[in-house]
Every structure is written in C-alpha cells, then in structure tokens.
Design brief:
The strands form two sheets. A seven-stranded mixed beta sheet has the order 1-2-3-4-5-6-7. The chain is of the alpha/beta class. Helix 7 runs antiparallel to helix 8. Strand 8 (131-136) and strand 9 (139-145) form a beta hairpin. The longest helix has 18 residues, at 181-198. The chain has helices spanning 45-55, 70-73, 76-82, 92-95, 98-105, 112-117, 181-198, 219-226; strands at 2-5, 8-14, 19-26, 29-33, 59-64, 87-91, 125-127, 131-136, 139-145, 154-158, 161-163, 204-206, 213-215. The chain has a single domain (2-226), classed as 4-Layer Sandwich (Metallo-beta-lactamase, Chain A). The protein binds zinc ion.
Length: 230
C-alpha cells in the first residue's frame, strides 16, 4: 500500500501489467479507481478495498475506471458484487466499446442472463458530455472524457491530482494507435479547456498504473507539449 498524497492511496499494483487499484477519500467517503486484472496468487483487490474501507469507516460512494482495457477493468463484475451500494460511474463510450463489452461477457462473476435481459447493468451512472462531477466528503471529484490512448479514456481529478490513465505525456508517442491523431489533440485541448473553466489547479499527474507519479507539474505546459500529431 502506498499513500501517494493525502487522500489518494494505491492499494497495490496487480497482475502481469502491474496496474494499480486506487482509493480516493475525503470526509468519510471514498471512490475506487480501477478494477484491475490480477494474477491467480494475488489476494483479490475487491476484498482488499472492502477491508480498507471497513477499517477506516469509509462509505465507498463511487467506482470508476480510467478506460476499458483489460488490465484496468477485468474484475469490475467482482467489485460490483462486493459493493452493491456503490455508484459505478462511466462515460457512455464505455458501454459502446465492443472490446470492453467482450471482456465483461467473458467474466463468470457477471450475471450474463440478467445482463442480456437488462435486469443487470454494469454501470449505475453514464454521462455523455465532456465532464461529470461529484463529491467525496464535500470535496470535488471530476471526470473528463478525453480519448487519447483509447476511445473510452477519462481523466480523473481529485485533490489537485489528475489520474491520466495510460496517456503518454509530453511528446512521447502513444503505445498504440487506437485513437486518430486529430482526436487526441482535440481531447487534450478539451481537457485543458474543462480544467481551465473549472478553475481547477492541477499540480500532480499520476498514471493509472501508478508507475509514473509527477508531483509539482505545470499542467498547462505539459498539455501543450502533449499536442503532437502522432
Ligand atoms: Zn494499462
């Protein structure tokens, strides 16, 4: 377990791609970010999250994903079963993504018949626009839709930090070419605009895997440098 900054904790980095499971918390309320793929010998992250929340008397209000790739979302049905009262929030692009839906359909913890008939839903809240906002203990939590690494990408803002999913920042070439270069640039510009309109001071950038943790970052300069058409 690693407290990245007060209120933002990595429970552990899971599975062969070492993807983090995060807890955001304030004033007795928490959000889970990422429901990662795990290795067979690992203690399940949904149980770790449950005991973490119980020991600290946290109400797990939200569960979020940075994007719909398997290393980030594979155990969502297990989390959903563990946290039936939690509001699972996603951008609508997630439930329109065939790859994500195929990952869910293969998961034996997902009640397939109920899902097909519409009695079971993967998410409680779907948003369509560029921004969704909630609160944890009265503190703002924002989600910005911004496809760069995948068409399901969101950026998560809390306590001055942005969890950037699998975005490659600066002028680095992304690790895949799923999103068209002009769409990436649009996403960066839109994210910058949303942050500016919110008047939000982003000063930390954390990759969803938890492997690159930038403290004390000039957000606008970093976004400017990331607008490379490749
Ligand atoms: Zn990843």
């Amino acid at each position: 377990m690693k407290v990245v900054t007060p209120g933002i904790t990595i429970l552990k980095r899971y599975g062969k791609y070492a993807n983090a499971c995060w807890i955001l918390e304030a004033g007795g309320e928490a959000a889970i970010v990422e429901m990662p793929m795990i290795s067979p010998d690992e203690h399940p992250p949904w149980l770790r999250a449950e005991s973490y929340a119980r020991r600290r008397h946290l109400h797990v209000k939200y569960a979020l994903l940075s994007h719909g790739h398997v290393d980030h979302c594979k155990t969502l049905p297990q989390f959903r079963r563990q946290f039936p009262e939690t509001n699972f929030v996603a951008h609508r692009s997630m439930v329109e993504d065939r790859q994500f839906l195929a990952i869910m359909a293969r998961n034996s913890a997902l009640p397939f018949e109920d899902w097909v008939s519409g009695r079971y839903r993967i998410f409680d809240t779907l948003f369509d626009g560029p921004l969704w906002s909630g609160t944890l203990g009265g503190e703002p939590l924002h989600i910005i839709y911004a496809p760069k690494h995948s068409y399901t990408d969101v950026l998560i803002l809390f306590r001055g930090a942005m969890i950037t999913g699998d975005w490659f920042l600066g002028d680095l070439r992304d690790c895949n070419a799923l999103v068209r270069p002009n769409h990436k640039i649009e996403a960066i510009q839109r994210a910058t605009q949303v942050v500016s309109e919110l008047g939000y001071h982003v000063h930390m950038l954390f990759s969803a895997h938890g492997d690159s943790l930038f403290y004390d970052v000039d957000f606008y300069a970093m976004m400017e440098r990331s607008q490379v058409a490749h």
